[in-house]
Amino acid sequence: MDEKDKMIIDLLRSDSRRPFTEIAERIGVTEATVRNRVRSLEKRGIIKSYTVQLDHKKMGYRTKTLLGLDVEPENLIEAAGKLAEIREVKNVATCTGDHMIMAEVWAKDSSHLGKIMSEKVGEIKGVKNLCPAIVMEEIKV
To answer: In 3-state terms, the chain is what percent helix, strand and coil (to 5)?
Structure first.
């Protein structure tokens, strides 16, 4: 991967629908070059997918929470999978550090968040501890 590839990736990360013609113009290559480089980045698994960035507040979710979970070690993978099935849970990762699992949870308000944590997350087999951190402001997404 060279500097041109990195520039293409940066432009696609800021807008994955950006036309190849615009990318080509901005980095000083042809559209065909951009198309070939993107295809190569995809084939090598560097670009895994294209996605949409959503505004949770405009979708009716006023509370975004980073939720740390501690689980019984033998239930780690199963618990992470069950957590990923919950509609309000947007991202799940197993981790080292303070918590075994970290998740991003969108809730309508603090009451809704409490219900998600007690009635959905708290009921997953092996969950021992929930540590929510409500996001105040996102600086970089």
So the answer is: 40, 20, 40
Q: Which domains does the chain have, with CATH numbers?
A: 3-43 (1.10.10.10), 63-134 (3.30.70.920)
**pTM of the complete model:** 0.82
Q: Distance between CA 45 and CA 48 in Å, rounded? A: 5
Residue 96, CA distances (Å) to 48, 84, 121 in order: 24, 18, 20
* SS3 state of residue 21: helix
Judge contact between 1 and 16, C-beta under 8 A: no
Query: Within 13 A of 121's CA, how many CA atoms are on the CB side?
Result: 31
H or E element: which one contains 55?
A: none
At 42-92, the pLDDT tens digits run 999 999 999 888 999 999 999 999 999 999 999 999 999 999 999 999 999
